[in-house]
Amino acid sequence: MVQVKICGLKNKEAIEAAANNGADFIGFVFAKSKRRVTKDEATKLAQYVPDHVKKVGVFVNETSENIQAIAREVGLDYIQLHGDETPEFCKELGLPVIKAFEVKEASDLDKISAYDCAYYLLDSPAGKYRGGSGETFDWSIVKEYDFLSKKILLAGGLRADNIQKAIAEVAPAGVDVSSGVETDGEKDLEKIQAFLYAAKKGDSNGKISTTR
């Protein structure tokens, strides 16, 4: 079954909506972004993330020392990197890494082979900040690429109304969404539920939780 990461969470209600409806990963953004949280804020929010849901910290060109300090304090399970981090940098962090790659054309995927990471996140070209523009990229590029055993996470412009098509075309190990579950720039609990329901194709006998 495809795994789902809900990223850019900033409050208890959104975390609980994601966790109660089948999210596999919760993302905290520590890079420059309108969804940015501080180490202290993330530490407080982390207490609402159940043990079976993995906590991911999102960074852009941060020092390994700061990443490791935040990871220890917050209790992060994965580090997600959206900057110009090298394969060597990823190895030295001491935690599983999700390395993001912007996909404009097929040649962008050639960079993946140099990295030894837990997951490889394929995203649309960045907007104002690193981490995607909220628009989809050409999924057919990925279909033609042989990733062998690499675990791919698909991101960029995903919503409840296109997620099943994305999964069918790309067959990723997982998907990552942020703006696609927001209304007016804030996480929308109903959109989180709808996205998870669509991504999981109505598992759990078609039931979704409305726990707030």
- The CATH topology: TIM Barrel
Alpha-beta classification: alpha/beta
CATH homologous superfamily title? Aldolase class I
The number of domains: 1
Q: Give the H and E element order.
A: EHEHEHEHEEHEHEEEH
Cα end-to-end separation? 25 Å
The average pLDDT value, as a whole number, equals 88
Q: What kind of assembly state do the chains in view correspond to?
A: single chain
Radius of gyration: 16 Å
Strand arrangement, major sheet = 1-2-3-4-5-6-7-8
Q: How much strand?
A: 15-25%
CATH architecture: Alpha-Beta Barrel
Q: Tell me about the biggest sheet?
A: 8 strands, parallel, barrel
> How helix-rich are the residues, as a percent range?
25-40%
Number of helices: 7
- Detail the poorly predicted runs: 202-212
CATH class identity = Alpha Beta
